[in-house]
Amino acid sequence: MNYDLILFDIDGTLLDFDMTEKVALEDTCAEYGFPCTEEMLERYHHINIECWKQLEEGLIDKQELAFIRFNRFFTEFNLVGNPIEFNTKYRARLGEGAYLIKNAVEICEKLYGKVDLAVASNGGKDIQYNRLRKVDLEKYFKYFFISEEIGYNKPDINFFNYIFEKTKITSPERVLIIGDSVSADIQGGNLAGIKTCWYNPKGLESDSTKKDFIITDLLELEKIILGAVAI
To answer: Given 4, 9, 27, 207, which residue is catalytic?
Structure first.
């Protein structure tokens, strides 16, 4: 099959969000004079994941997420501060943290010019654009689909309908999404009727969610995509 469009998730697929999160939280805690132990980093990581899953399920919005995650963090570790203010400073630091996933640049170089590339992210607009620019990935992408701009989050079908409308895609099965999140990228792709590729570098056990491809290294995409493109 020839693909008309390749959608890349950003966090955990092209850029290492775990490292970005760690550095941003450490630096923001330092500004406030808070400790930031490994236990605190690990706990915040899980709180944040839980909040983003609630966002994906439509249970909370971005403003509620901003308050809830740090309100819980402050409460659990007896920290005194304004969660919204802390979140604002933390998000500013997220925009400065750009750490490439292994072979992210290499696969973009191999695909660029052979098939249209786009990013499809649930992240914040300014944060994601800044991070892509910092590692010089922005130049490879024809389209940028960021939930904060679109008004919908993956896996909402409206997120993907927006993409189809803007790209004039009429054959969803000729679109492939690559991402590390089964709940956002893979389930969203299945709902939209596009092909899905789960990026699973840690070799996690696969659940029952339908996945067209599973890879552990981004360079595996070369065969999947270019093998299907008439060059």
So the answer is: 9
Residues pairing with 15 in the sheet: 11, 100
CATH number of 5-16+100-227: 3.40.50.1000
Q: Is 9 a catalytic residue?
A: yes
DSSP state of 76: H
Residues 178, 16: Cα–Cα separation, whole Å: 15
At 119, list the tokens.
């990013």
Q: How many CA atoms lie within 13 A of 68 on its CB side?
A: 17
Sort residue 136 into left (φ over 0), alpha (ψ -120 to 50) or beta. left
Strand residues in 75-224 grouped as ranges (E): 116-121, 143-146, 175-179, 195-199, 213-215
Contacts of 38 (CB under 8 A, 6+ apart): none
CATH superfamily to which 17-96 belongs: Putative phosphatase; domain 2 (1.10.150.240)
Radius of gyration of the chain (CA): 18
pTM of the model: 0.90
CA angle 14/64/138 to nearest 5° reads: 20
Q: Where are the domains of the chain?
A: 5-16+100-227, 17-96
User: Could you read off the pLDDT of 77-114 as tens digits, one per residue?
Assistant: 999 999 999 999 999 999 999 999 999 999 999 999 99
Burial-class residue 109 by CB neighbours within 10 Å (0-12, 13-18, 19+).
exposed
Tens-place pLDDT, residues 110-161: 999 999 999 999 988 999 999 999 999 999 999 999 999 999 999 999 999 9
